[in-house]
Amino acid sequence: MSEPTPRFWQIFFEVFESLPRQGPGNRACFAKALALCGGLPPSPMVLDLGCGVGGQTVHLAELTSGSIVAVDSHAPSIGRLRAAVISRGLEQRVIPVVGDMAGLDQPPASFDLIWSEGALYNLGLEKALGLCHGLLRPGGRLVFTDAVWRKDNPPPEVKASFDADYPGMGRVADVLATIGRSRFSVMGHFTLPDEAWWDDFYTPMEIRIEELRGKYSADSEALAVLDQIAQEPTMHRRHSDYYAYEFFVLLRAGE
Ligand SMILES: C[S@@+](CC[C@H](N)C(=O)[O-])C[C@H]1O[C@@H](n2cnc3c(N)ncnc32)[C@H](O)[C@@H]1O
Fold it and tell me: Which domains does the chain have, with CATH numbers?
């Protein structure tokens, strides 16, 4: 498959940066995963990895009393989160940081909770588990979502889409096996329901694509990119039985 062009990325970010989130997830699933964490300290130190514009960062601020460092490598997303933090008066509790989660400038064993929705796969799960183990205190929790296959033999368009974005994607059992080889144990896991793909992600994405089709009505290159981006929610409507997003809640082994 050919590399995306600079124009593709310009239009891609014009769509994605405006969304409440950059991947599947919603407040109800967030709350369910947080409840599975059990007894966190009253004011936990929290790290949100690959936070995007901060959909789940705001939930972390609203549903815990913690202090949150929220990291993403895409500076405009952190810019949007900064604006949200200021407008909600959360400056004392949320620190948005532009950075690469693979090379964070954070002391070891300094967090009680690491949260990461749809982002750890960028590092590879095994490497991400090692990194998070180092950053968490003994007894700390790691909560993340990961895309997984639900059925074999996906239609070619589904296989091509995930091969391009996440070639190593496995099933829930594969993720659990990787966790089993790490220094974490599983406290719980569950599959995101379909509305978690639509409410804050694909529905606003389709609305945004329509807006931009108006803006770029005389620009065939931009319209072709918008058609390409629109294939993702269309594919989900047709084939979501082949893949899912799974929430995993882990406990860091103490020592
Ligand atoms: C699928 S989006 C999820 C964003 C957000 N957690 C959400 O669920 O709305 C993945 C995010 O990971 C970020 N990301 C990818 N690689 C990264 C890295 N090495 N360090 C920090 N952020 C990264 C991307 O910029 C993107 O915002």
Answer: 26-34+44-153+167-193+244-250 (3.40.50.150)
